[in-house]
Amino acid sequence: MDKKHQINLWYAFIAMMMVLMFQSWWTTYKTVEPIPYSQFEQYLKDKKIEEISVKENTIEGKFKKPLKDGKQYFITTRVEIPLADELSKYDVKFTGVVQSTFIKDILSWILPVLLLFGLWMFFIRRFAEKQGLGGMMTVGKSKAKVYVETDVNVTFENVAGVEEAKRELVEVVDFLKDPKSYGRLGAHMPKGILLVGPPGTGKTLLARAVAGEAGVAFFSISGSEFVEMFVGVGAARVRDLFEQARKAAPAIIFIDELDALGRARSSGPMGTNDEKEQTLNQLLTELDGFDTSSGIILLAATNRPEILDPALLRAGRFDRQVLVDRPDKSGRRAILDVHAKNIELDPAMDLDQVAQLTTGFSGADLATLVNEAALLATRRNAEKVTQQDFNEAVERVVAGLEKRSRILSEKERRTVAFHEIGHALVAANLEGCDPVHKISIIPRGIGALGYTMQRPTEDRFLLSTRDLENRMAVLMGGRAAEEIVFDEISTGASDDLQKVTEVARDMVMRYGMEASLGNRAYSTQRQNFLGQPAGDVAEVSEETQREIDLAIKIRVEAAFTRAKDLLNDHRKELDQGAELLLANETLTEKEFPAIRPVSERQENAAAE
Fold first, then answer.
1. Tens digit of pLDDT for each residue in 367-401?
2. What's the CA gap between 372 and 241, in Å, rounded?
């Protein structure tokens, strides 16, 4: 509720109370004659009183005939009778006095009312504000934050690694600044631009950069802020948002997390009419109703485009989808340059090497990485952030914090050491595998007792059958090493088994790499931006399903056999590497040349 309205209500309440009190006093003053108790006794003796009513503290009554001033009723304060008899003998005028209880009486009913009102203000209104009902007159008002150019300190210079997406949005800004030049051939800007991509890739940052560059009103709101407990509130807020944008045109509307608002509508037999669907319907109506020539452009961002309603994505609504994907190596380098501007870097720092180590990192991951490296350098009281700080930061982001307090027994340490050396040696002796960067048996994160970090030499977008088979062999290298050395296996390969099974299943069911099953996909599953499977498994017969299961099993076993044979051929390096790892806890290719890529070792041997 508006503060002004609250004050007005208090004034009305106080005025009403004063009117009631005055009315009560005036009625008593006009019709009732207050008299002393002794006078009351005299009136009794003179038989001038017709009737009385005795109360706890007063006596009220009626005269037989009105007094000279016209008053026919009287009131007197009740006095103890024995004392009254005694005073009457000496012709003393006396009356009773009742201590005023006005304030006490008022407080006895005002305080509970105020207490209840206070509770209502604290609890009911607090709940209402959380539900978007801070005042009944503002229920349908949009919660969008309005920014002007001076409110946003982000420009396109602060955005790196997503050049294609940035180019699309630069065009939007240019159109808002000079719509005539874009419309000279009859073209018009898309009504809606949808930014799609994994979390942390810079979708919201791009939208803020548009706000900083465009110099027009920028309405920013999250999709979840439209949906409330009461039906109709979300639709009203959509209407109000577009109405505000029309008044402020040219303007940009940005809806973050559009999937909270635009989820596909239900098509069940009973049908639905819930709040989300009404809000979505209103958004669809508004998208159809506004003209881009008026200078209004709708931006939205989501990392789950597969669940959006098809009506929202059709031509004429969100005309253009802009992919904001994870950056490639050059993009990662550009992002590192942006975040490293405020960091004191060592002159020997090589950000290209950091970009090479961070394949698959998003912009947010790289920002966290730079900050972690700076924190590590600060902890050791260094004046500059070095390459070692970045390497440790990469390990921290990828594998988690070191758990040196987690004490392993000697047998467990040996098992982990041979397991990790097994991974590294298999990777080093297979063509096309990413080179090993570092091996460690220091426990990290929640359950990792050790890890082998590989350094990709390039971003790869296509993988051959051989590449996937090599990846499976590397995953099985740890388990194969355990069986060779200890003649038994442990639970340490559980994560490896899960990953190798997923690779084998994809090869058989998605990529058509199993000759016995033909060139056919048996699964329509796709990975969405959140890394969760999306789609359905194709219907197959029981016989085909048995063939699929058998093919997956054969491929996994083949990878295990291949890794085991390779490690048997390099048993000497396996034992040497494990002993070094047990002594040092970490190992790099410089400290143990046997884990260098086989091609590099062959070149060095030829040169010698």
1. 999 999 999 999 988 889 998 888 888 888 877 77
2. 40
- pLDDT of res. 132: 47
Whether residues 107 and 184 share a domain: the answer is no
Looking at the fold, whether 297 and 388 belong to one and the same domain comes out as no
Same structural domain, 303 and 343: no
Element (H, E) at 320: strand 320-323
- Alpha-carbon distance of 183 to 186, in angstroms, equals 5
Same domain assignment for residues 394 and 338 = yes
- Give yes or no: residues 596 and 450 share one domain: yes
Q: What is the pLDDT of residues 97-129, one digit of tens each?
A: 455 566 666 666 677 777 777 777 776 666 555
Angle, helices 203-214 vs 163-177, to 10°: value is 30
What's residue 564's pLDDT? Answer: 95
How confident is the model at residue 224, as a pLDDT? 77
What digits encode the pLDDT tens for the residues 311-341? 888 887 888 888 888 888 888 899 999 888 8
Q: Please indicate, yes or no, if residue 536 is contained in any of the structural domains.
A: yes
Instruction: List all residues 6 or more positions away from 1 whose beta carbon is below 8 Å from its beta carbon.
Output: 125, 134, 135, 136
Q: Are residues 218 and 246 in the same domain?
A: yes
In a domain, 430, yes or no: yes
CATH at 288:
3.40.50.300
> Which alpha helices (H) appear in 46-101, and where do they start and end?
81-89
Residue 436 resides in a domain: yes
Buried b (16+ CB within 10 A) or exposed e, 351-390: beebbbbbbebbbebbbbbbebbbebbeeeeeeebbbebb
Vertex 138 angle, CA 136 and 143, to 5°: 140
Task: DSSP for 411-460, please give it.
Answer: HHHHHHHHHHHHHHHHHHTSTTPPPEEEEE-S-BTTTBS-EEEE--SS--
Number of other residues whose CB lies within 10 A of the CB of residue 159: 23
Cα separation, 573 vs 423, whole angstroms: 12
Q: Please give the structure tokens belonging to residue 475.
A: 């995953």
CATH number for the domain spanning 487: value is 1.20.58.760
Q: Which residues of the chain have pLDDT under 50?
A: 1-7, 83, 86-87, 90, 92, 94, 97, 132-140, 149-150, 271
Residues 318, 341: one domain? no
Take residue 479 and report the two structure tokens written for it: 């388990």
Residue that has been written with the tokens 């503060």 in this structure = 3
**pLDDT attached to residue 87:** 46
Which residues form the domain of 117? 102-130
Please tell me the pTM assigned to this model.
0.69
CA distance 601 to 14: 93
> What residues are labeled active site?
420
Residues 290 and 150 in one domain: yes
CA 116 from centroid of its chain's CA atoms = 36
On whether residue 109 sits in a domain, the answer given is yes
What type of residue sits at position 176? L
DSSP three-state, residue 393 = helix
Q: Give residue 342's pLDDT.
A: 85
Cβ-based neighbour number of residue 80 at 10 Å: 9
Instruction: Provide the 8-state DSSP code for 159.
Output: -
Q: CB of 146 within 8 A of CB of 245?
A: no
What radius of gyration do the chain's Cα atoms show? 41
Q: Which residue has the tokens 């007094």?
A: 67
pLDDT of residue 100: 56
Whether 442 and 460 have beta carbons less than 8 Å apart is answered as no
